[in-house]
Amino acid sequence: MVRCVFISMCLASSLWAGDLFVTTSSSHQVQQFNDEDGDPLGNFCTVANPVGLAFRPLQTRDALSGDLFVGSATSHNVQRFDGQTGESFGAFCSVSNPGDLLFGPGGDLFVLSLTEHQVLRYDGQTGEPMGAFCFVANPSGLAFRPLKSRGSTLGDLFACTASSHQIQRFDGETGESLGAFCTVANPRGLAFGTGGDLFVASATNHQVLRFDGNTGESEGAFCTVANPGDVSFGSDGHLYVTSQSSHQVQVFDGQSGEAMGAFCTVANPGWLVFREEALPCPADFNGDNVVNVTEVLVLLENWGACGDCPADINGDGNVDVVDLLIVLDAWGGCA
Fold it and tell me: What pTM value is reported for the model?
């Protein structure tokens, strides 16, 4: 059977966002909410002064995402929890005054150290320190660009700096500074949208601002949020924002920025993340639980540039040999 060698590419469109997880400094918890209606599902895990969280990306297909990693400002470490049960696995790595954290495209863990004004890098499997990746004065938020335009498999790293009120950009492989990308008054959380634009919460303006993801050119205010914190896009394409004034996670239309109301209530919300889960069989275009010649015909019919179609399994905007390999890999019964 043909295997897809570009595993990260194959996984890209076989994922959908599951439940929402939000840190609350009041109760020192990470709380879980149903992704469809915001129904509270209770405390997922307890962390003293939680200050950032991320799920380890999927390592294999057809499985829940990996464990949950949460920074603890009190313990000066990143703690690891079972991604399904919330069972504690203890400290994963030590970080002086940690802030935001995320997994890079290569699987390593990147963590802000507010004390050292650095982004520190750790082996994503073992927690072994790999040293300082880059320097950021008074950092607050991190985001990787999903794809890198210079032809690399890694995207550049974008970091908020409260000192200069900027989003700074760094080479995603080397950590080399690429300068200021855009200016934001008191930036906090940031995220790339599905169309490639960058969205940044501005605590000073009480807004989420939108910037061209390639040039950094301002596209104006996207939505208004009282004292916004972290931001994230859901599988529905909408933008979710923590509002520290209203003690809510608010949701906005991902295209227009129109307010869609409160999604859930969280006392003193901080960071938020959706748990990614795997679709059972993304290569089964017609939902008959079988991958066969029908899927090949759909591929051929849509071959080439394809903005938004099921045949573009890896979500790169083209139906090509990579998508064909995914179909061949899933050939036969698929439930």
Answer: 0.80
